[in-house]
Amino acid sequence: MRFSAATTRKIQSVFLSEVENGIRQRPSSLQMENTYIPELPDGTESGLFLALDLGGTNFRVILLELENGVVVKEDVKRYHIGADLRVGCGIALFDYLAECVSDFVIGQGVQDIELPLGFTFSFPMIQHSLEVGILVTWTKTFNCQNVVNKDAVLLLREALERRGDTKVNVVAVLNDTTGTLIQGASQDRNTAIGLILGTGSNACYLERADKVQHWETERHGEKEVIIDIEWGAFGDNGVLDFIKTEFDRENDANSLLVSSFTFEKYISGKYLGELTRITLAKLTKEGLLFEGHAPGALLTPGNLTTDLVSHIEQDTLDGGSNNTRDVLARFGVTATEEDIAIVQYVCEIISNRAALLVSICLATLLEKIDREESTIAVDGSLYKHHPRFEGWMNQYIHLLAPGHKFKLMHAEDGSGKGAALVAAIALRLKKRLEWEAIGD
């Protein structure tokens, strides 16, 4: 799990190759999806905008008032999606979303105002335009019938029309990664990369428009466009197998979607705890830890979560052992000083490898876009709560992309504020095209 300089360079080379193949519509494990967002917030965004954030069992409807690109008022309401709706009929799910949007809008007393809506739909999709998102596959706890290969925007629009009690207009669809880049750009104009590092992981970046071959709408002289990499699947085609350990193979075999989301299984919050547990279980079986005896709780898949790994990592940072002892005590383990040191070492190695892998890819993107200065907008629970991740990333990116000035910036709520800003950009683009048509 510790990479040599040669292995690190090889990962960089493989990632760049997959990025270039994806952009050119050649076989790649990276989707490199065109988001059709050709510009960033410019500080003129004003008015009332809605955002709908769907990505888990709870979703949010958000009303934002923008004044010159700044959020001056924000109202949010959360709604729960029951198991029956998550695996039932797709029409019923979208009818429920429309019902909640209606409930929120009427509750805010803005049902008679035309409201542009940015739809954060955090599932893999193919975009044919800024307002067309075709669902590729459900993930997480969703598996609704008759939605795969359908346009999520159209389904939402039809559901809103069936109600007919608001003036909501869905003008853009995006995922949370794209929203994070946009939200970051509203705070820092140098933002060129968006990164989600939480339960799952993904990244997007600003690409030169002339390099992008997948472009189904008419072009209007766009200089750049946000590309959604969908990097959780990096290596699904086997190109990363040279770094796969026996622990990774077992982690993959225990997962819901075997041989999928390969990169995510190395780096994301959903899997780092399980990777640690698998490693500790093997060391125990070999008699190298806990005198060869571990309670069943530690041997049960899913029991050691990534937040516990973060607690242990805080000990290593502080030079202590209290958190580690507390975590092990939860599993009924009484640990020796040597056990503590081994457990901390395993957490460090697995966390460090994840931070290095993320940094290798980010450094590759920085070199590719080759700007004088770039800001990387980041959101997600792993980045926020792991005590060493940000420090490692800063260190590794500096080493791997020397001469490229960058900074990491925490940009919260891209799926909410970012979606509203994308709706504002969509409206601006539409008005510009209308003016151009009048001019012609």
Automatic annotation (TrEMBL):
Write out the GO biological process terms. glucose metabolic process; glycolytic process; intracellular glucose homeostasis
Q: Which Pfam families match?
A: Hexokinase_1, Hexokinase_2
- UniProt enzyme class: transferase
Listed EC numbers? 2.7.1.-
Which pathway does the UniProt entry assign to this protein? Carbohydrate metabolism; hexose metabolism; Carbohydrate degradation; glycolysis; D-glyceraldehyde 3-phosphate and glycerone phosphate from D-glucose: step 1/4
Instruction: Specify whether Kinase is a keyword of the entry.
Output: yes
Domain of life where this protein originates: Eukaryota
Nucleotide-binding is among the record's keywords: yes
- Which intervals hold domain Hexokinase C-terminal? 193-425
Q: Where is the Hexokinase N-terminal domain?
A: 2-185
Q: Which reaction does it catalyse?
A: D-glucose + ATP = D-glucose 6-phosphate + ADP + H(+); a D-hexose + ATP = a D-hexose 6-phosphate + ADP + H(+)
The record ties this protein, via CDD domains, to: ASKHA_NBD_HK_meta
Name the Gene Ontology molecular function terms of this record.
ATP binding; D-glucose binding; fructokinase activity; glucokinase activity
Q: Which UniProt keywords apply?
A: ATP-binding, Glycolysis, Kinase, Nucleotide-binding, Transferase
Record's GO cellular component terms: cytosol; mitochondrion
Give the family per the record: Belongs to the hexokinase family.
Q: What is this protein called?
A: Phosphotransferase
Q: Which organism is it from?
A: Neodiprion lecontei (Redheaded pine sawfly)
